[in-house]
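Complex 467.
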Amino acid sequence: MTNYVAIHGHFYQPPREDPFTGQMPREAGAEPYHDFNEKITAECYQPNAQAGNFDRISFNIGPTLIAWLAHYQPETYERILQADRIYHSLHGTGNAIAQSAHHTILPLARQRDKHLQISWGIASFQHRFQRQPRGLWLPEMAVDLATLSILAQLGLSFTLVSEEQVRGDLRLGAGPYRVRLPGGGYFAVFVRDRFLSNELSFDMDHIADGRRWLDWRLRGRSGLTLIATDGETFGHHHRQGTQLLTDMLKAQPDVVYRPIALSHYLLTHPPTIEIEINEQTAWSCSHGLARWDTGCSCTPGDHQWKPVLRSALDLLADEIDAIYQYEMRRLMTAPWLLIERYIEVVLGRIDPLTLTRELTHTRLTSEQTRRVAQLAQAQLHRQRMFTSCGWFFEKLDRPEPRYVIAQAMRAIDLVKQATLVDLGPNFREALSAARHTQPGPTSGRPIQSAADLYDEIYQRRADSRLA
Ligand SMILES: [Zn+2]
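Predicted structure with zinc ion bound:
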């Protein structure tokens, strides 16, 4: 039995653009580059693309990151798309898989948001790779059965989880295994080797020769081993990672293993053994999803701000949705279809006014059309405000909570332009209960609560308007 290994890279960056201008601000710490997307491209995306590593790994690229690459790094972008085409031409299936749109922790999201995040992720993949995706990466591998059911409904075949997120007979290594869905039927999951994935991600500095390390670790195995990690491990987190990956993937007669992509492996190895998933778990937190909700012990310090920020955003989402439904009630029979299809606007395939006109059943004035389009765009930013990075770290006074609050403020701004309803004061009030209690270096003026972040973004916007 052949000894296969799939090395899967999850490539992703949070939405760093200012949601008011669409511009990427200059970021401290990224020097000599303008921002971290540029820096990480130079250290990771570009060298891995040039080395041909995307041709042999299994990978996903977050839809927001690939949109940025398409715009700012077209050569690297094209080379990555080409990698999937090369794999497809050799093996009858590509090696890229989709990712849900905005790195939302899907088990914590509402049903409609889960569905939207996944369907937007599929649409983005189709737009970029010009084919149907077979698998989809769940942000943080956060999983529950409701999410798997939507993946199955939307025509996907598999996802990835980590071994500590499942229970059952794992004698097939990475599998694939099948998970029974509540509504009937099954969904396939590949199970990553936690030890090897972590050794590669966090102890790479102790690995002198990638090929020898992998040869040694996989000797005596059969079936499939899955090593899944952040793609930025290769070149950004570890400078030598690009070369190490090239060495591991090189086809050589004397190595014991054979690299393969997950989609490819699934073609000839349909799942037979049934296992169960531990719902509400993630690869970075196998004990639950509190890290992105109430706070968990993996990150030290006071987490009081986390649930407050989340409930402030939940409340705002309710208000934005209520306004949307109220405003649309006479204009559209299927208001959520407009949001489902709004990804086409994001991808530049249609302009928002044309899409709005296409889906309305009465003839709208140009003023009405403009307002509908603004409310639809508010829904886009309402989705982006649940990006998981906002809650990942222990401190409130970091760039990531600012990203999600800025997205919320952009949604508020669009609702106000469309309806004159200002959701800002209530939202700011809710944020003021998210207190900052951790001392340490701050990125600007010391802050007391998340309301200070709101004020900071508000002020920055006022300043840029005057400038
Ligand atoms: Zn945790």
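Residues 285, 287, 291, 296, 298 surround zinc ion (CB under 6 Å).
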